Sequence to fold (357 residues):
Amino acid sequence: MSARIALLPGDFIGPEVTEVARGALEALAPRFGLDLTFETLPFGGAAIDAHGVPFPDVTREAVRKADAVLLGAVGGPQAHPWNALPREQRVESGLLALRAHLEVFANLRPVAVVPGLESLSPLKSDVAQGTDMLIVRELTGGIYFGSPSEATDAWGVSTMRYERHEVERIARVAFEAAQGRSGRVTSVDKANVLDVSQFWRDVVVGIHETEFPTLTLEHMYVDNAAMQIASQPTQFDVVVTGNLFGDILSDLAAVIPGSLGLLPSASLGGSVGLFEPVHGSAPDIAGQDLANPVGMLLSAAMLLRHGLEAPAAADALESAVHAALADDPTRDLGGTRGTEAFANAVQSALTAESTPA
Ligand code: NAD
Ligand code: IPM
Ligand code: MN
Fold:
């Protein structure tokens, strides 16, 4: 099978981890009969500097023609001039525009503690052990895209609005994912206060009753969900929630396996999938060989699984990453390896897997 992958390295550690993922994909492709071609495109702050906008037309056209899009991370430190631009010209607006352009409304953020690697968690090992949840975050609606949204000197407003079809389709994604897991969905909202959340809850209940009555649906308020994720993460299987709550809860859940740098994501629902780690561009550690490439490598595995329908290749990449983590993780996890040494370890594990015993 041949596939074209659009690479959007982005800023700061984005290019560092993107190179690692590309190297791993190139190393395993021949074994699985994959003929991969890569096209590197300007995006984020790098694109502002080179083209004046974060999401240039050349990138806009190329991502639609690709078979999958792999994105590093974008953005600069708080004081960077990119953040002084008008909102619509900023890096983060480019990222939202990319998601909207690809119509990827379903953001899957799996959070799993690898058996044997519980000690990497900042939680007590017996609390972290067995954590295996899938956060399904609505990605192209809610308060990120609602109108009106503006600020003056005197006031600011953003609007959390969901249309029925937006909630129905993300609920279906969550229930379908739960069918392949333990069959439990927790819908997270703030229905005790927000009308938009009561609407969300009613629509999710409707989809459950009419289309997935044999699955288990629970509801949880978002403040309690934050507490429960930190104290008893194993109670969750599939968590479905809106754009803003999903953003916050996924960073929280991300540290359960050990570091924000571990968590991958897949954004699906349009014609082309978008794959990116959950972490940002981490300007504080860029250029120092400190970036953990695991979130990016596991995003590349999700690209193989969901974007190219190459599950055996995805399994091989995940196994190689887990083997390298078990052997000696990166420094953010208390190991000794920098980005490059970890990338080399993954390459060795991929080669070892392909060598007959
Ligand atoms: P961040 O995720 O970049 O960093 C938060 C903390 O986690 C930092 O201490 C950082 O060093 C650490 N960290 C993050 N990724 C890591 C990795 N792979 N290995 C080791 N440590 C890692 O969040 P931030 O500092 O709030 O944001 C920085 C910029 O990134 C901002 O411009 C923000 O808007 C942007 N951002 C982009 C994305 C994206 O491109 N998808 C996601 C989140 C934030
Ligand atoms: C994420 C990021 C983005 C978001 C920002 C950078 C726009 O935090 O992918 O989680 O809020 O969705
Ligand atoms: Mn985020």
